[in-house]
Design a protein that fits this description.
The protein is an alpha/beta fold. The protein contains 14 helices and 37 strands. 26% of the residues lie in helices and 35% in strands.
Length: 607
């Protein structure tokens, strides 16, 4: 297959110019001089000029040609061992003798299309950079990350009274570590890690609303090595009004009831005593009779919680009332659902409960976007299979869904397989209990207005790095997202609506400066702090190591099509020879053969 290296517009212009010149040259020839071979020579000359300008190339099998890309952290000895007979390029922040500087990976890949094997030394490349390298990628000399906090996650938005939990790990190099989390008012908490330990979890409780910066400091063997910024935006407390429906009083209800009372939530509990008799409790809510569920009753709540055992036992009229209320905006949550294969029905038909292997029970440690890892919990061996439009709220270490939510009309329905979460409270791990239930209730509860839910990553964000922004908004909106940077300028972000979930919108932000950035969509806003490019060095090292290792494993196992065939330009010498031969033939005919009878006289002839 033939392609041209020049842009398509120029190729068309060159072709038109060559055709016009050929037509003019043939037309001005005397009729007797229009011999077939002379027209062919003129056509060859025009074609040679066109090909020289358009630069044709053919797709051909690539010959193995390697290059070394040196990234920060690469040792000189490792680079010297790799560099023999290969081109050497060095990224900013790294050094290597005799290496050509590479400011941008995409430009390097474009300027070196003949390279089919990239060998990387050092900590590697960021995910978006390593994916731009064509051909095969191998991690020839990976380096260890710099000492520091190499993994961290925290929620970007909290309600006043909720805990800020920062969880992650540190690269200690084998020594002891002390981490401290300090807020605007001073120290909030500290933890000391024994030699060899890496995981940590720190908690703080913001005391006021508004944007706040915390500092996460790390000292290794008594020497301070890092002080990183942790941002959080604290909003007003606005707990939902909850109707809890259970088959019989249980420990789960008691533990959640205590937490909801602590956050001043309105709660009504309906417990079945016998077939047609119920016991009611009300906290921060006027007493009501919820023995029969009606649209008027359900309209006074933001969320209904129905335990898995009582959903199938509900009268059909109650189930229909709940379905109608969810379609009108109510949130519905079913924790600790029934056995695998049970038909859940609307509004839960988008979910399926599946058994995990041949286990009866398994220990899980749930986490999710912006959700710090929860304490371990032994649960029945089940997982949730969410269909199109489903969104996972909590997943385990193997990426199996433990809790998920899906839209149903104007409301939402969610299920969970985390049974017996009250055991967290009994074991003194109440923060995990609060985080888990706060995540579920916030994701499902009826929005107080046409609210926007921002889905932002829970780790650091850096200057001039792409950030995936997602948000949930009413599907009928023509959504416009804007960002305002610390310099005060406001610019729009192009958004794309998800084809499966019309409420889900995606955008990409590439911050231009460090500091607070305000994201707005309609009347909703969200804040995030953008870090300097030099912040969180260990975190960036670990990210680069993971991305490069993944790309290298994929490239070595199955090289892509770009690694198999490359565009090889036609030799310019051959094109010049074609043009010179055609012009020489025309000149020789003019010089020695002269004109035929009736034609224009040639040089040296008489009229």
């Amino acid at each position: 297959m033939i392609r041209f290296l020049e842009p398509g517009g120029w190729v068309v212009a060159y072709a038109v110019a060559a055709a016009a010149w050929l037509a003019w040259a043939v037309r001005v020839e005397a009729p007797g001089r229009r011999a077939a071979w002379r027209v062919a020579a003129l056509a060859a000359a025009a074609g040679g000029l066109f090909l020289l300008a358009a630069r044709p190339a053919s797709r051909a099998p690539a010959r193995e040609r390697g290059a070394i890309l040196v990234t920060p952290g690469a040792s000189p000895a490792a680079v010297s061992a790799l560099a023999a007979g290969s081109e050497l390029f060095v990224m900013p922040g790294a050094s290597a003798r005799g290496a050509a500087p590479a400011r941008d990976v995409a430009l390097l890949a474009r300027d070196r299309p003949e390279v089919t094997h990239w060998r990387i030394a050092g900590v590697g490349l960021a995910p978006w950079d390593v994916e731009t390298l064509p051909g095969r990628v191998s991690f020839a000399a990976p380096a260890a990350p710099r000492p520091g906090v190499d993994r961290a996650v925290w929620p970007r938005a909290l309600a006043l009274g909720e805990e800020l939990v920062v969880a992650g790990s540190v690269a200690t190099g084998g020594g002891s570590a002390v981490l401290e989390l300090a807020g605007p008012a001073g120290g909030e908490g500290a933890v000391e890690l024994a030699p060899g330990a890496t995981a940590f979890e720190l908690r703080a409780r913001p005391r006021r609303e508004g944007r706040q910066l915390y500092r996460l400091s790390l000292a290794l063997d008594g020497v301070p090595v890092a002080s990183e910024a942790v941002d959080v935006a604290v909003g007003p407390r606005d707990p939902p009004a909850v109707l809890w429906i259970e088959g019989a009083p249980g420990f789960e209800t008691r533990s959640v009831k205590g937490w909801l009372r602590d956050v001043d939530a309105a709660l009504v509990v309906r417990s079945r005593v016998s077939r047609d008799r119920f016991r009611h409790e009300a906290f921060n809510h006027e007493p009501v009779d919820a023995g029969r569920l009606t649209p008027e009753l359900l309209a006074g709540f933001d969320l209904a919680v129905v335990d898995g055992g009582s959903w199938s036992a509900l009268p059909r009229s109650d189930r229909e009332a709940l379905r109608t209320a969810v379609a009108a905006g109510l949130g519905l949550l079913m924790p600790a659902v029934a056995e695998p294969g049970d038909a859940l029905g609307a509004p839960f038909e988008g979910f399926e409960i599946a058994a995990v292997a041949d286990l009866e029970e398994r220990e899980v440690r749930g986490s999710g976007p912006g959700l710090a890892p929860l304490a371990p919990l032994v649960i029945p061996a089940r997982e949730i299979l969410a269909g199109p439009g489903g969104r996972v709220l909590v997943r385990d270490e193997a990426e199996r869904a433990l809790a998920a939510v899906s839209r149903y009309g104007r409301g939402a329905a969610a299920i969970s397989v985390l049974a017996g979460t009250y055991r967290w409270v009994l074991r003194g791990e109440a923060p995990s209990h609060r985080r888990y239930w706060s995540r579920l209730l916030a994701a499902v509860a009826r929005p107080r207005s046409l609210a926007v839910e921002w889905l932002l990553p829970g780790g650091p964000v850096f200057v001039d790095e792409p950030l995936a922004v997602a948000l949930l908004a009413p599907a009928r909106w023509a959504l416009t997202v804007t960002v305002t940077g610390p310099e005060g300028g406001t610019r729009p972000l192009p958004t794309v609506q998800d084809v499966v979930e019309p409420r889900l919108w995606r955008a990409e932000l590439r911050p231009r400066a460090a500091g607070w950035h305000r994201l707005t969509a309609g009347d909703a806003e969200s804040w995030l702090w953008v870090q300097e490019p030099s912040a969180w060095p260990a975190w960036r090292d670990r990210r680069a190591l993971a991305a490069t290792s993944l790309r290298a494993a994929r490239g070595a196992a199955a090289p892509g099509p770009a690694a198999a065939r490359v565009a090889r330009p036609w030799p310019r010498g051959g094109l010049l020879a074609l043009l010179a031969t055609a012009l020489a033939a025309l000149w020789a005919h003019e010089r020695w053969l002269g004109a035929p009878p009736g034609g224009r006289p040639t040089r040296g002839s008489t009229a």
